[in-house]
């Protein structure tokens, strides 16, 4: 199962919307699954809330958007990294790649 990028965003966040033009495409080009969780979508948010709260117990430090990279998001998830805030496409790709590079050691 490939690693998954979970995007936590808000419908009224302009930066989140701007990132949505390329964030999923970039993640998929890097071989990652992508799940978009809007905070207003209570069912989706409830499903992945424990992953967000594992990283940000009181949500105060999270960015808009916050991308959490983890494996097994549906089960015993393990967070391997994150990308916070909005970035130009190339920078976003570099930051995701840096997370992947740092996890390569632990992958078989």
From TrEMBL:
Q: Show the taxonomic lineage.
A: Bacteria, Bacillati, Cyanobacteriota, Cyanophyceae, Nostocales
This chain's source organism reads Chlorogloeopsis fritschii PCC 6912
Name of the protein this chain belongs to = Thioredoxin family protein
Q: What is the top-level taxon of the source organism?
A: Bacteria
The protein's matches in InterPro entries, at most eight in alphabetical order, are given as: Thioredoxin-like_sf (IPR036249)
